[in-house]
Specification:
The complex is a heterodimer of chains A (349) and B (480). In chain A, helix 8 packs across helix 9, helix 14 packs antiparallel against helix 15 and helix 17 packs across helix 18. With 349 residues, chain A is an all-alpha fold. Chain A contains 20 helices and no strands. In chain A, 73% of the residues lie in helices and 0% in strands. Chain A starts with a helix and ends with a helix. With 480 residues, chain B is of the alpha/beta class. Chain B has a 10-stranded mixed sheet with strand order 3-4-5-2-1-6-11-8-12-7, with helices on both faces. Chain B has a two-stranded antiparallel ribbon with strand order 9-10. In chain B, helix 1 packs parallel to helix 14. The relative contact order of chain B is 0.15. The chains are: A mainly alpha (349), B alpha/beta (480). Chains A and B meet through helix 1, helix 3, helix 6, helix 7 and helix 9 of A and helix 1, strand 3, helix 14 and helix 15 of B.
Amino acid sequence: MIQSSLLVRVVAAECSAAVVGLAMFFGHGVLSGISGRRTDARLTHARVVLQLALEDPEAGTVGSSVLVELPTGLRIALLAGIGASLAGARRQRLTAIASDLGVLSIAERRCKSRLWWRRLHGARLFTLLGGGTSCVPGLLGDPRPEVRAQAAEWVSGHPDEETVDRLVSMLVADDASTRFTVKDSLIRIGGPVTERLAGLLSTRPGQGLEAPLEVALALPDPRLLSAAVSLCHDDVAHVRALAGGLAGAVGGARALGVLVSLLGDVSPEVRSAAARALGRAGHWPASSALAGLLCDPSWDVRRQAAVALRSLGSPGSLFLRRALSCGDPSASDAARHVLDLPDSVVRTL
Amino acid sequence: MTSLLHAVLDPVESVVLVYFLAVNSFYAVLWVSAAWEMVSYRLGTWNQDQSRLLGSPVTPRISMLAPAYDEGPTVAESVRSLLGLHYPNLEVVLINDGSTDETMAVLQREFGLRPVHPSYHRLVEHKPVTGLYRSPGNPGLVVVDKDNGGKADALNAGMNIASGDLVCAIDADTLIEADALLRMVSPFLTRDDVVATGGTIRVANAARVRAGRVLEARVPHQALAGIQVAEYLRAFLVGRLGWNRLGGNLIISGAFGLFRREAVLASGGYTEGTVGEDMELVVRLRRLGLDRHSPSRIVFVPDPVAWTEVPSSMRALGRQRDRWHRGLCDVTWRNRGLFLNPRYASLGLVVFPYYVCVELLAPVVEAFGLGVLVLAMATGTLDVRFALLFFLVAYGYALVLDVATLVLEELSYRRYVRMADRLWLLAWAALGSVGYRQCTVYWRLRGIVKFLRKRTDWGAMTRTGFQAGGSTGLGSGGTG
């Protein structure tokens, strides 16, 4: 059995642990309160100085003594806190101030750290404050996904040929951890990405092109049309569906012709995407073909066809009203539902 | 006679002691795991710019599923609060679960609802939908009017009608922080194998609330609610977070959980006829994911916060805990094939056995231990000094864990900034093991008995409303 003396020792150890814990709980609270009041006052003053420096390009780093005297942590918090909301000339000014205050040197040192979270923080500081062209691109190949994603986010503010190429290549890599950030960054970069996407979409087979197609869909450009039309005949249904959406977003007679042919695709996903794209393109000559899809066996296809018809205006609505009295309850159901929807809702579908 | 009693009681004592040691050692492991996870999470989110998601065209669509039953006085404010959440691609699906009050009339008046033909893809079963409404002024709002069928039934109806890739199920009187979805969606954006994420639930009883938002967190001065503040901190900051690293969570709170809609529909939606439908869904998602080699990861994210009103009367609290335990019994029984099954890896070998041996059986062992204690006292075989010391060890250990939880909260989120609130919090944490814990043992035992008698009623939850702004609850948690 357990000796009583052992229990006494355990109770003593528990008491000690509880006392240490309580000291941390209350001590941290008290210290945070005191330092919080002090730092709040300093930060408020420093924020005013920083605002003035950002407003007036001629001011140099006027009042920078106030900023220099801030402890490093507060200096970083002050600059990082404002970084995400600045753009243009003010943003460039912030980069210069951060450089003068040594924050960018800190970020650079962190980017070279052996600890993943310090590299992440370094890349994040460069993303918020600007700068970092010498070290952040190297982090696109970092072993930690968090760091790679942050570097990809940084690229959206500092795109050049090499980094955009790198992002596009990351897009087709099977790496879920960075896929979203890479897609988002490429969409934010916009124009320079289109040419590379067109090249990528026309040279690779369909498998693995889902992410590039999603980016292309957000950046519709005539240069993407050939690749889109070609991928509308891909073996993978999801790729055909995305390519159909892209073709519809780019528009033009060639694209619309392919979309009408996709209305007869074997995959409901593709038929549905084609109907949606035709509705968004406002291609009213497709009304009759879309009306035919109101009797499709797939609920999604019927719904998208009905929404597309509604988007086409009078010609589409005419077909929807006809469907109300047709013999197929599925078709009349879909038509009645969509005709009832307020315009503001239809615009969001 | 005494020697016979010794012969019987000694091994029983040993079993209880071993159980006590094993369970408490595991709690310590859980705390260390939670602290590690918290440090890692905080380092990863340092100065992270969440607002970037707001301007992204590739964020997945989220449908908030809000079941409502007789919520007439608060439903309009709740819906406004949901529509005002910071997320770029949001749909709010309010399901009126056969309310007998003016819930529908209020919604129609406040949002200018227009009836639309109720056509939707019926992928999971539920009670008949009697009306579907859209609001011209709020294109993201869908109101479903249906026959009363309970929470699971209402959520299934919402699941069918929702158009989001992700669905967020919320519960009665949940107040969601404006940027919670931006954080909660994060695991879905970085991993393909995630099927559900959960956030922290905090107690809103004494919080200052305005327009459906918590302005200031406060610790209630009322004992029952106050003790639950410490209890919720322990459950979420230590329990859920710790499991992230030790094999994944089995519970996503019904009050606030984000799910991949496709996965939920493929698994058959919420199960009716159980009072633990949220846990049942999560266990099923994990089990089916492992069976089918499809996504099955459940992630707990500590900083998306939802606030809830906890029961402040013994009667209501007893009913809630009894129901929770009945739910646990039901879910573990339905999924008994997972127990120590190596095919399910950590789920079968660690997580599920923990829920059975600790969460489910703890009240039985505790009650048994207390019974043995009483018997030993009555027969004079009890070493009083030893018993007192053992009680001190047990109480001291619980206190150390509570203090450690408060330290974790203090060093991470520090939501209770007033010194008075810290003192109250400490007092309630210290008092939780005396009286309150024994009551929960009784309620949970009652739950086991009711489960064995196959009772599936919910019991009513009496709400008193939040401070300054009133209750803004939604849900049919206690209905049907």
